[in-house]
Amino acid sequence: MNKYKFLCAIFSVILVISGCGQITPNEADDEHNSSGTGPAASHAPAWHMLGGTAYSDDNKEGEISFDSKGMAYVAYVNGTKLTIKKFNGSTWEQIGVVGECTTEMSVKTHGFSIFVHQDQPYVAFVDAARGNAVTIVKYNGKTWEFVGVPGFLPPVEADKHQAYAQGVWLYFFKGEMFLGYHYYSEFNWNNYGAVFKEDAGSWRLVFGSLGSSYCRYIQFTDSDNELYLAHDYGVRKYDPINKTFNLVGESLYRPSVAVLDGIVYAGAYSGAYIQACKYNGVCWEFIPTPSMEQASAAIIRPIQVEEYNGLLLCSYVHGYGDITVKTYDGEKWTILGKEDFTTGGNLIYDLKVNNGIPFIIDDGKVWVYN
Fold first, then answer.
1. With contact defined as beta carbons under 8 Å apart, do 127 and 136 qualify?
2. CA angle 180, 243, 280 (to 5 degrees)
3. What is the pLDDT of residue 199?
4. 92 near 98, Cβ under 8 Å?
5. Which range, of 144-158, 167-181, 219-233, 284-298, averages the lowest pLDDT?
6. Which of the 8 DSSP states describes residue 176?
7. DSSP category for residue 23
8. Alpha-helix runs per DSSP H in 109-209
9. What is the pLDDT of residue 29?
């Protein structure tokens, strides 16, 4: 070994011993330096921003969906323009403006919804250009095309006068398209929620009257060939024979639903507390949820639950503040990453798990845990 190589070797040993040149936990935890995709990270798992800020606008509500390759798509309203972006592996690129969706509508409830089905993004939205009716479009790889008749109002029992769409939720189950629908009817000046299934080009009502005071959201999830929905007043399971949704257990307030090892779990709002619970076949059993009591009643979905690698994943908001995510293994709760890692304080955020990886979209940012 010559003198130069010998000195280099000695210097390398000194660097290793001193810790110089290694990535510290804080550096690895910098959300601005990670795309959140690609091979498993060499550092400890943490929450990172995916590709920087996905969008920036006064209306921060957004929704995320994924194709079969795990590519993320987001929908959001830019001013009044419902805009769709796709993550290309390094940055967010716009793939189209699909229509007019007023800020007022999308903030009050959920004025748009995106679902990627068979690698095609579908978007349903409250169409401001068509009298706040519902329009559904899909992306064919080059352009956006209408699905069915644009600007329609699904048939509702209470609609003997004018009805106005205020929120939509799109979901595919076993190749069939379901539409959650929040509307306001001048028949009795009230708000309603309903769920429809696309049937040979028309919409079939599979459940109505999801609360007669204010139905602000609907969440779908499926597991083991079973379809569930959560809405402001309970969790329901789809009956494919009678084509309706039946209540699971007693009513819950503002729940979210997930299925883990065949057991149905829910997160719900109870007074000044948020609460996780599981269904025992007869009723809901509450799970002790320490230090999860600071949610604000103003949050549309104070607690969201998902299945995550054999664990129950739970996200919740501290009042109008940031989001914390925890896992439950049947015995104890563990914080996933850092507490209060977001900075949005938004009334509506979106939690999804894709291919065993959790994502949260909040305040124009997509956060990924890996």
1. no
2. 85
3. 82
4. no
5. 284-298
6. E
7. P
8. none
9. 36
Q: Is 171 left (phi over 0), alpha (psi -120 to 50) or beta?
A: beta
Give the helix ranges, DSSP H, for the chain. 3-18, 25-28, 103-108
Which of 209, 203, 213, 218 lies closest to 157, judged by CA?
209
Query: Contact at 8 Å (CB) between 107 and 59?
Result: yes
Work out the end-to-end distance of the chain between its first and last CA atoms, rounded to an integer number of angstroms.
Answer: 42
Query: How many residues belong to the chain?
Result: 370
Query: Contact at 8 Å (CB) between 362 and 344?
Result: yes
Query: Cβ distance 92 to 84 under 8 Å?
Result: no
- Which tokens go with 270? 């109870």
Residue 268's nearest CA partner among 252, 292, 283, 280 is 252
The residue among 90, 96, 94 whose CA lies nearest residue 52 is 90
Measured distance CA(194)–CA(209) in Å, rounded: 6
Give me the pLDDT at residue 221, please.
95
Please name every residue paired with 144 in a beta bridge, in sequence order, or none if there are none. Answer: 139
List the beta bridge partners of residue 230: 219, 235
Token pair belonging to 82: 């419902």
Q: Return the bridge partners of 223, or none.
A: 226
DSSP tag of 190: E
Per residue in 48-72, pLDDT tens?
Answer: 999 888 887 655 678 999 999 999 9
* Extended strands (E) in 24-160: 47-49, 62-66, 72-78, 81-87, 92-100, 112-117, 120-127, 133-139, 144-146
